[in-house]
Amino acid sequence: MSEVDKGIELNHSPVLFLDERNNPLTFIIKPCADKEAIREMIEFGGGEVVSIPGDYGITLIPEDVALIGNDEVFSIQYIKECCTRNKLLNLNSYRLNTESRYSDGFEVMDVLLKYTSWSDALKGIPYERSFYLLLSSSPSDSSFEDDLGNLELAPGPSSSHAVGPHLQT
């Protein structure tokens, strides 16, 4: 029985892995013992698992996999901890590659949340961030509020008009 099967239940928000436009966040899971459990967590939270990274895909691998090259890869622990805490965490903290094609200040959350794409980030194309959705008042439909439960959203960027160029190193 895998670590995921033993300790984490699917009780996180069904919108945890959606961006602010309600589009699914995209992940690629490399082969590992917990692959199906991680897939289930992502899909339960509204995200999608694909086989080809594309412009916004985040590649997840177990921490014990040997890394070759400078591809951007992140620990599968990211999904486990987001589900446990019921909020999106800073993906930069889960980066496993030590070398990168991107500048030191590169914010991978900007790709995850689809503010910029991997290819645009490599080219250094500026982009604009918008605030994460913040629910400041209850909608009039009480069933909507009940569906949200204890959803907790991570704080968004400090400015809704911050421009973040990503420069190739």
Keywords:
8% strand; disordered C terminus; Rossmann fold; 4 strands; 6 helices; Telomeric repeat-binding factor 2-interacting protein 1; single chain; 4-stranded parallel beta sheet; 169 residues; alpha/beta; TE2IP/Rap1
How would you describe what is shown here?
The longest helix is centred in the first third of the chain and has 10 residues, at 35-44. The model is unreliable at 1-5 and 132-169 (pLDDT under 50). This protein has a 4-stranded parallel β-sheet. It has a domain at 26-123: BRCT domain (Rossmann fold), CATH 3.40.50. The chain is α/β, with parallel strands linked by helices and 169 residues long. The chain has 6 helices and 4 strands. It has helices at 3-7, 35-44, 77-85, 109-112, 118-123, 142-148; strands at residues 26-29, 48-49, 58-61, 73-75. Belongs to the RAP1 family. Residues 157-169 have a biased composition (Polar residues). Keywords: Activator, Chromosome, Nucleus, Telomere, Transcription, Transcription regulation. Its main location: nucleus.
